[in-house]
Amino acid sequence: DDRVSGSAEAAVLEIDGVTKRFGAECAVNDLSLSVREGELLTLLGPSGCGKTTTLRLIAGLERPDDGEVRVDGERVAAAEDGTFVPPERRDVGVVFQDFALFPHLSAAENVAFGLDDWDAEAREAHVDELLELVGLTDHADSKPNELSGGQQQRIALARSLAPEPDILLLDEPFSNLDVDLRVEMREEVRRILTEAGVTGISVTHDQEEAMSISDRVAVMHDGALMQVGDPAEVFQHPQSRFVAGFLGHASFVPGYVTDDLVETSLGNIGRDRIHGLAPEYDRTRIDVLVRPDDVLVRPADGGEADGRVTYRRYLGPTVLYRVELEDGTIVEAMHNHAQRVSLDTPVTVELAATHDLSWFPTEDH
Ligand code: ATP
């Protein structure tokens, strides 16, 4: 996506060293993050990591205990001098998890709700335009209870976009939709934000959702920002074991660094294939990050086996295997059904990755 590849783009939102406490609980801990104009950035992390609190700090529904928040370069909250711009005076819209539509108002009236101070003719034209953008021109007169979940979400989006905010916040936008509808609405939300030219910040604990819709993901853990970047970059080159494990299946294969190789129980790996391995790690032990689709598992067929399959799970089109190697290392592998291997089969295991592999210094146990 070349909209975000140029880093020259202006920051619409800057969060600078923000901390938010609730009693002894530090919900957001010294968080700094800058969001570029027009991008969709997703805050991703497990339950309780501080995503919603971060969103509420941006919206002006919470005040920071430390640090400051700037929208379009203007300080909207600063702990130091108590600056606090209330939510309605920030150019920030919010789409709530439950859509929060007014049940007694029609779709068009819901969209027009925040536009009281607009001239009637301009307001009507703007509402028509927004209904068209979200594909609901034909449902302008329907009440929310006459609309499907996906249609309600479209109206909620149109209503939040109506006052033309610079930033749109989306709290767990797909959690109230049926599984089938989620994938369709991901694409739709993405399209609508792009066409509206608004900067989006969404929140989810679903890594697949985050990676599929976002220009960048910001991974949080215990109130802290762990890593922010392009989804593929964060997936392939996580900077911590937490991020590696949160974004997908991760096996950590022990290795020993020699002059030109890393020796592992999956075979020797050329040192040039290990991402950013500095000379100071010569002659040390590291753990190489291996994803299930980097690994090929085949029945040993009487030949020398590397290990055996200890676990197998069907994931629709693919099968996930867990293999215990001779030295006790556990590796996960993912294959399609054509290469089916049964439980307990002695297998050979081969590293099939063609990309650079990430690694972590060995932890002392
Ligand atoms: P989830 O995915 O479950 O919504 P989250 O990542 O959005 O979680 P937050 O809702 O931001 O996490 O909560 C972060 C931490 O702050 C949690 O431990 C939570 O219990 C605490 N917390 C959040 N809001 C409040 C509040 N108003 N009062 C007290 N504690 C709070």
From TrEMBL:
Gene3D superfamilies from the UniProt entry: P-loop containing nucleotide triphosphate hydrolases
Keywords annotated in UniProt: ATP-binding, Cell membrane, Hydrolase, Ion transport, Iron, Iron transport, Membrane, Molybdenum, Nucleotide-binding, Transport
Membrane topology: Peripheral membrane protein
E.C. no: 7.3.2.6
TM spans (from-to): none
Keyword presence, DNA-binding: no
GO molecular function annotations of the record: ABC-type ferric iron transporter activity; ABC-type tungstate transporter activity; ATP binding; ATP hydrolysis activity
Cross-referenced CDD domains: ABC_Carb_Solutes_like
Entry-linked SUPFAM superfamilies: MOP-like, P-loop containing nucleoside triphosphate hydrolases
Location in the cell: Cell membrane
Cell cycle keyword on record: no
Chemical reaction(s) catalysed: tungstate(in) + ATP + H2O = tungstate(out) + ADP + phosphate + H(+)
Record domain ABC transporter: where: 13-247
Enzyme class: translocase
Cellular component terms per the entry's GO annotation: ATP-binding cassette (ABC) transporter complex
InterPro entries: AAA+_ATPase, ABC_SmlMolc_Importer, ABC_transporter-like_ATP-bd, ABC_transporter-like_CS, ABC_transpr_FbpC, Mo/tungstate-bd_C_term_dom, P-loop_NTPase, Transp-assoc_OB_typ2
Quaternary structure annotation from Swiss-Prot or TrEMBL: The complex is composed of two ATP-binding proteins (WtpC), two transmembrane proteins (WtpB) and a solute-binding protein (WtpA).
Role according to the record: Part of the ABC transporter complex WtpABC involved in molybdate/tungstate import. Responsible for energy coupling to the transport system.
Annotated family: Belongs to the ABC transporter superfamily. Sulfate/tungstate importer (TC 3.A.1.6) family.
Entry protein name: Molybdate/tungstate import ATP-binding protein WtpC
Originating gene: malK_12
